[in-house]
């Protein structure tokens, strides 16, 4: 009881500082003295090459957020007792910047990433910030390294905002020191050889998330445990895992999952797992797809459905299309799901007039690259 009460008091007192925020107008820029140039497109490997600069700002329970800076990308130095290393007190985001036909840099719905990261910080007791200042800081960093955004459809600058506990303690408690930073990496098209449907294996042994857990937050601790199941799936010849939770379909790999089918009443319907169970990440691409499909007149449903529901629909010929959505690939069409020794082949229409997944991908790409004019989801930098 004493520990619980002490923990609550500490948490309450820290929250006073969590509400404070850095201001993007205070950013100090110290440019690299040895900048390097963007490698050729064929050398771009996801996450391997970092841009010249990074954003960082420190936080302490005593003083709140410090002075935000943009500095040369560098290695981090911290105590081996930093609680991020022992208790995974860390969260992150994934987003991209693009170059449009006029040479302007653009961001795609950065306000949603800012909001989601605040939610993740809250869940893991890290300090939060002002969402608008997050976006403005992001814009400043992208401006500084704008020449690192590769040009061409499918090319972009991947952006990784991260917040970690740097508190030097082996005790399990809310951190008293933290570091927020943003690093960036130029990337090429997810499908280098063109749009390719993927094969899935439905995973009934391992679980990605459970109700009451942290599946709805973007925490590093959600991703590490998925590596082994993914390796095992790859060894069997499958691209990704279809995550099940006691038979309930949740996500595919690190993407949200959609099924376009005829329901039992014979009505065309697009279905995806709801956010209400807390086992599904509220993806930015997921939300974008839901809004676009609703605008196009599709019957879109967010509700619980199971692998048995899918198999029944497949056996009755009611499956029209299946796809995943996420920042990296935007849309991944699914050609097969393997479950309990059976392969369930799925139609993969190949044009935007026939395929809902391809139509979504083409529309989202057009918005991201500024081809839809002043679309509210596409934010010009500078």
Query: What share of the residues lie within helices?
Result: 10-25%
CATH topology of the largest domain: the name is D-amino Acid Aminotransferase, Chain A, domain 1
Note the run of SSEs as H and E.
HEEEEHEEEHHEEEHEEEEHEHEEEHE
End-to-end gap:
53 Å
Mean of residue pLDDT values: 94
The class by helix and strand makeup works out as: alpha+beta
Radius of gyration: 22 Å
Q: Can you count the helices?
A: 8
Total number of distinct structural domains: 2
Overall spatial form: globular
Family: Belongs to the class-IV pyridoxal-phosphate-dependent aminotransferase family.
InterPro entries: Aminotrans_IV (IPR001544), Aminotrans_IV_CS (IPR018300), Aminotransferase-like (IPR036038), B_amino_transII (IPR005786), BCAT-like_C (IPR043132), BCAT-like_N (IPR043131), BCAT_family (IPR033939)
Catalytic activity: L-leucine + 2-oxoglutarate = 4-methyl-2-oxopentanoate + L-glutamate; L-isoleucine + 2-oxoglutarate = (S)-3-methyl-2-oxopentanoate + L-glutamate; L-valine + 2-oxoglutarate = 3-methyl-2-oxobutanoate + L-glutamate
Enzyme class: transferase
């Amino acid at each position: 009881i004493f520990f619980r009460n002490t923990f609550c008091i500490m948490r309450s007192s820290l929250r006073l500082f969590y509400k404070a925020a850095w201001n993007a107008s205070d950013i100090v820029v110290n440019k690299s003295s040895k900048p390097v140039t963007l490698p050729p497109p064929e050398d771009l490997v996801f996450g391997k090459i970092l841009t010249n600069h990074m954003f960082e700002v420190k936080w302490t329970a005593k003083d709140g957020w410090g002075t935000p800076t943009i500095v040369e990308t560098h290695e981090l130095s911290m105590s081996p007792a930093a609680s991020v290393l022992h208790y995974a007190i860390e969260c992150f985001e994934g987003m991209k910047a693009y170059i449009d036909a006029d040479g302007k840099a653009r961001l795609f719905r950065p306000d949603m990433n800012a909001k989601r990261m605040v939610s993740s910080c809250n869940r893991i007791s890290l300090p939060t910030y002002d969402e608008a200042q997050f976006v403005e800081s992001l814009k400043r960093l992208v401006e500084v390294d704008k020449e690192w955004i590769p040009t061409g459809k499918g090319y972009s600058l991947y952006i990784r905002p991260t917040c970690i506990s740097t508190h030097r303690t082996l005790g399990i408690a809310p951190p008293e020191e933290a570091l927020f930073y943003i690093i960036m990496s130029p990337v090429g098209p997810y499908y280098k050889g063109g749009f390719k449907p993927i094969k899935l294996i439905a995973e009934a042994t391992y679980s990605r998330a459970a109700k009451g857990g942290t599946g709805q937050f973007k925490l590093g601790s959600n991703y590490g445990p998925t590596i082994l199941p993914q390796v095992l799936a790859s060894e069997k010849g499958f691209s990704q895992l279809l995550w099940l939770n006691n038979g309930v379909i949740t996500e595919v790999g690190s993407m949200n999952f959609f099924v376009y089918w005829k329901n039992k009443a014979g009505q065309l319907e697009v279905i995806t797992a709801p956010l209400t169970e807390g086992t599904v990440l509220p993806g930015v691409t997921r939300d974008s797809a839901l809004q676009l499909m609703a605008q196009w007149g599709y019957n879109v449903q967010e509700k619980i459905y199971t692998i048995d529901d899918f198999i029944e629909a497949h056996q009755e010929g009611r499956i029209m299309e299946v796809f995943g959505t996420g920042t990296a690939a935007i849309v991944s069409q699914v050609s097969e799901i393997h479950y309990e020794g059976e392969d369930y082949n799925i139609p993969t229409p190949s044009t935007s007039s026939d395929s809902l997944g391809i139509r979504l991908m083409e529309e989202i790409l057009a918005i991201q690259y500024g081809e839809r004019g002043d679309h509210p989801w596409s934010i010009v930098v500078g």
